[in-house]
Amino acid sequence: MPTNRADGRRASSLKRTAPDPEWVQTYRQGTPTSTIAAAARVAETTVRYHLAIAAREDPRLRAAHRAAARPATRVTAAGRRNLDDVLALYRTEGRLPTKRTPRERALAIWLARRREGDAAGIPSPDYAAALDEIPNWRNPPTKQADDAARWDRRLDEVAAWLATGNDLPRHQKTDDQEERTLGVWLHTQRIDDRAGRLAETKETRLNEAIPGWRVGRPRGGYKGRRPTTLSSPDGPRRN
Fold first, then answer.
1. Where in the numbering of this chain does the Helicase-associated domain appear (predicted)?
2. Are residues 146 and 237 in the same domain?
3. What are phi and psi of 223, to 5 degrees?
């Protein structure tokens, strides 16, 4: 007894175990579901059913399809501004954009798309090469990791500031933006220390890298050599 086309499609789909790996791979490469269905001579709903199962097993499947379906990312004027702002934020604050301001939210979305394209194998070489200045930019940072990296960066920057012969950086009464940035960070460490919030590991590293960090900078600067050992009017502190 002859079968109609719909029966043939149903028979064909019954022979496939969902999700069909060939369909999944083709879809991952950016091929529309209608094209996959036409090539396999099955209903498009059948293909979508297979892909829905595959997407539950691999949540990145949809993103990979969208990224692959788009043309290779090209550098635009807006993209260049976003790139410059992301790099500037990292250089000045040692962190990646978050959601604290509308502009940072826009930058975070832009950076997420760069990660998405990179993961799908279609990165923009120009963007990727510039972003490689930021360690692990391809991996979305957690707030804890971001804060820890920024703390390490600031400690190194203050140590480098002192190594060039400067006094401890001031957090106010200075027109030097670099000194103010480092001074605010160091002042925050003193506040945390007095409040008992400073972790012992951080205290140890501060003691080693920045002698006299608790006392701060005397009025008028140091007379003679800066202290080379930790001193404090209250003696050593511990959490």
1. 149-208
2. yes
3. -105, 110
Do both 160 and 234 map to the same domain? Answer: yes
Tell which of 47, 69, 91 closes a domain: 69
Backbone φ and ψ of 177, nearest 5°: -65, -40
Phi-psi region of 173 (alpha: psi -120 to 50; beta: other; left: phi over 0): left
Q: Whose structure tokens read 């012992």?
A: 200
pLDDT by residue for the chain (239 residues), tens only, comes to: 444 544 444 444 446 788 899 999 989 888 888 888 888 888 888 999 899 999 889 888 888 887 776 655 577 888 999 999 999 999 888 888 877 788 988 898 899 888 877 776 666 778 888 999 998 888 876 777 678 778 888 999 999 999 998 889 998 888 888 999 999 999 999 999 999 999 888 999 999 999 889 886 665 554 444 444 434 434 444 43
| Residue 152 structure tokens | 């390490």
Q: Is the same domain home to 162 and 214?
A: yes
- The total number of structural domains in the chain stands at 3
